[in-house]
Amino acid sequence: xxxxxxxxxxAISGDIRKxxxxxxxxxxxxxxxxxxxxxxxxxxxxxxxDYNGSPGTILTFFPWAGVPRGRPGHGQAYATAxxxxxxxxxxxxKRFTDLDIQTGEVETRFGExxxxxxxxxxxxxxxxxxxxxxxxxxxxxxxVPAVHAIRGFHSSTLGLTSAKAxxxxxxxxxxxxxxxxxxxxxxxxxxxGGPGTYVDLLTDPKLPRGLEGAGxxxxxxxxTPDDANQEEALASLHQHGLASSPIIDRAYFKSLYYREPxxxxxxIATDTPGFAIDEPVETLGQKLSLPPRLxxxxxxxxxxxxxxx
Length: 309
Hints:
The protein is α+β, with helices and mostly antiparallel strands. It has one domain: 2,3-Dihydroxybiphenyl 1,2-Dioxygenase, domain 1. Helices cover 17% and strands 35% of the residues. It has 5 helices and 16 strands. The strands form 2 sheets. It has an 8-stranded mixed β-sheet with strand order 2-3-4-1-13-16-15-14. It has an 8-stranded mixed β-sheet with strand order 6-7-8-5-9-12-11-10, with helices on one face. The termini are far apart.
């Protein structure tokens, strides 16, 4: 299976305006795409990332007003980490303090400093000040200087009570390899390596079962280059006894979904065709973008959605 790391990560949020403000203003991400949940078109699907909406930078949300808070735990992606330049944590610590953003203590993980913080719904996020080369250009922002800005994803941490079966899927079916271990955490990467490829398995038998709701991760998507590699991924999953969805055309990428043995929902998504197929890169996120099959229903969909700006 030809995977190049993380493609996007999708979470659940409550208050939509707080969500937009946090990811664009507080974190300095670009509002890349305003679309709808294709399986529930009465709900937005919001995308944040770098200027071009590049795979490996995109955190997306299904915002449901009034949805109860979820509970992070096993069977879920437990934390989402962003890559920032080494030496940038003091800037972010001051920024979070000034903006009254809840944070944890800085910890050292695999030789790098990590700061945990939380979005308005309690979603667990991390900044990893990495000394590894990360040449991805940050999203232009009036709020966050480029020298300290987020480059894209660093890693996703999966919460598990036992990691053996999940590790076997990563290695045998998905082409990952174990890179390092420290205590209850094991890090895996694909051949290319580097920020944006890492998956950490955090094993804790005391973790409660995760409950889906605001502030939790819905699924983690891995990137594959194109349709041909997507077909190969589907065949590999079935060869290793993993049940999956068929390949689904999401307009901006093609997707297939499956659950790893620990219960985390995985997706494999193609890099192509990308987010600029229905609006110019310069104006990404400024209009409601719908997949072709929903375009005929634009009037009623727009009438049902809350106003964002």
